[in-house]
Write a structure and sequence with these properties.
alpha/beta; 6-stranded mixed β-sheet; 16 helices
């Protein structure tokens, strides 16, 4: 167990409270293992009727995973990174397949691993503080923790747009896209949680009663242009469409994409293409684990973490530097299944 996540049963509710405020509650291996063990214990415990996931002190819900550790491991033999992914994905899968209702409160920054721990929940609560994103292509990674599953199921080509750009969604946008089931005012969260703790069997009705009208979802104003310019599953086609458009939105989006890793943008597009027809979430996790094990030991991830997180010069030197130099053969190598003894499997 670890103090980085607070786990206990309150009434008939199993509570999971992320508690790494200095890291905006980013997940490490011990946190994922503790959550997984709690879910196992509560699965057969008839005294636990529901599960609640939120954060304790500090801002943000969850800023992602322990990126520094993963990069340091990737620069070596990669074993610690593989252990983290194996444990995190087992937790993601356990949440996704859980029979008892789970409610996640995405109040504040919800990125990467925070998306992975909230999206499997049956009830996902956004607020005016929610900032949800999968910004991994900016550090040479890709939207994992089920990103290939969740993003590929969003309306039109919005998932591809989010995966490539790392665009941040607010709470109203999360609700409109189905990434949140409810929108609550942040100052009503404590009252809603108290009601749920008192009456967990009425969870859905309580959230409905506390829900507030959400503002307009700004991203929907760009739905048509996103669907048109991100229509292709080839990165080169998307970039060409953005260049040819001539509009301000296209120019700004192109400028954003030109800062991202060409390799992991191509990885992300294939991930969503495959994810749209993936038979089960278990299959999704198995593929993402294979891809993740390879990507974290490649140049772009180590360089991206150096540029964005360590040195903070925000000037990564991607290799290959141009999309046309990222070959289909390289992408196929990254996506190749792992041998049976190394592949991911549910806990």
């Amino acid at each position: 167990m670890t103090d980085d996540v607070l786990i206990h049963v309150e009434g008939a509710v199993g509570r999971i409270r992320l508690n790494r405020p200095k890291a905006i509650h980013a997940l490490n291996t011990a946190m994922c293992a503790a959550v997984l063990e709690a879910l196992k214990a509560w699965r057969e415990d008839t005294a636990v009727e529901a599960v609640m996931i939120d954060h304790a002190e500090g801002r943000g819900f969850c800023a992602g995973g322990d990126i520094r550790m993963i990069a340091e491991s990737g620069a070596g033999d990669g074993s610690a990174a593989r252990e983290f992914f194996r444990t995190e994905y087992a937790m993601n899968h356990a949440l996704f397949t859980y029979v008892k209702p789970i409610v996640a409160f995405m109040d504040g920054i919800t990125m990467g691993g925070g998306v992975g721990i909230s999206q499997p929940a049956k009830y996902r609560v956004a607020t005016e503080n929610t900032k949800l994103a999968m910004p991994e292509t900016g550090i040479g990674l890709f939207p994992d923790v089920g990103g290939g599953w969740y993003l590929s199921r969003l309306p039109g080509r919005i998932g591809q747009y989010l995966a490539l750009t790392g665009h941040r969604l607010d709470g109203a946008e999360c609700l409109a896209l189905g990434l949140a089931t409810h929108y609550l005012d942040a100052d009503r969260l404590d009252a809603a949680k108290a009601r749920i703790l008192a009456e967990p069997q009425g969870l859905a009705a309580i959230l409905d009663a506390f829900a507030a009208p959400a503002p307009d979802a700004r991203i929907l104003a760009h739905r048509d242009v996103i669907d048109r310019l991100f229509a292709s599953d080839r990165l080169e086609d998307i970039l060409a469409a953005l260049r040819a458009d001539g509009g301000d939105w296209a120019a700004q989006t192109l400028a954003t994409l030109e800062t991202k890793s060409p390799q992991t943008m191509k990885v992300s597009l294939k991930l969503l293409l495959d994810g749209a027809t993936m038979p089960t979430f278990e299959d999704e996790m198995r593929q993402e684990f294979a891809v993740g094990c390879r990507v974290v030991q490649r140049h772009d991830f180590i360089e991206g973490v150096r540029a964005v997180i360590v040195d903070k010069d925000n000037a990564p030197r991607w290799n290959p530097a141009r999309p046309e130099d990222v070959s289909d053969h390289l992408i196929d190598q990254i996506f190749a299944p792992l041998p049976d003894g190394e592949a991911w499997a549910p806990a």
